Amino acid sequence: MAEIANREALRPFHGTLLNEESNIHPIVDLFPKWSVEKADRNWCAGFVYYCCVRAGFLFPYSPAECISCSLAGCGGWEDFAKGDKRIEYHVGSDEKFIPEAGDIVLYDRVFINLEHDHIGIVIKNKTNSIIVAEGNTFNDNISRILERNKDEHIRAYIRIPNNFSYY
Average pLDDT for residues 66-94, to the nearest whole number? Predict the structure, then answer.
């Protein structure tokens, strides 16, 4: 999944920009109740789901475990991971957990002062940081590869087994 996330982030995807029409249709189309207009500037979790689908994972955009919302929202990813015992969920402060390429990372207070306000996919683990693929980075509506510190902003890591199938 890390290879796919890396490639897709470098495309790059972008919402509506000053002089360019959005190209996030492939992401938004996975969520029947969503539109490009509704998703604009708020599609980081949708980008993660899109990468999962491209990697061959089979699970619905709104699994039963998603209490708060669908996988178009960061909170939905947390609900999904905590609700399905086959998926690993590790709090960010767990010093024994070592992130791996392909893990999903949930953030707190990256853009706004709220819990799970952003999400990405780990490309590479380093000693004090992670390289991640993210959609809607810096709230500028563009996907990128970034280096993020392993700090209090990392809420959790989610590891979906390679052979995972929801059905």
Answer: 94
Tens of pLDDT, residues 105-124: 999 998 888 888 999 999 99
Q: Which two tokens stand for residue 60?
A: 């619905």
In a 13 Å sphere around the CA of 78, the CA atoms on its Cβ side amount to 17
CA distance 165 to 63: 12
Chain-centre distance for alpha carbon 12: 15
User: Residue 139: its pLDDT value, please?
Assistant: 67
CB 14 within 8 A of CB 142: yes
Give which of 112, 118, 127 is closest to 77, Cα–Cα: 118
Edge-to-edge strand ranges of the sheet holding 142-149: 88-91, 154-159, 104-107, 118-125, 129-137, 142-149
Residues 128, 98: Cα–Cα separation, whole Å: 11
Provide the whole-model pTM.
0.96
Please give the radius of gyration of the chain, using alpha carbons only, rounded to the nearest integer.
15
| Residue pair 130/72 in contact by the 8 Å Cβ criterion | no
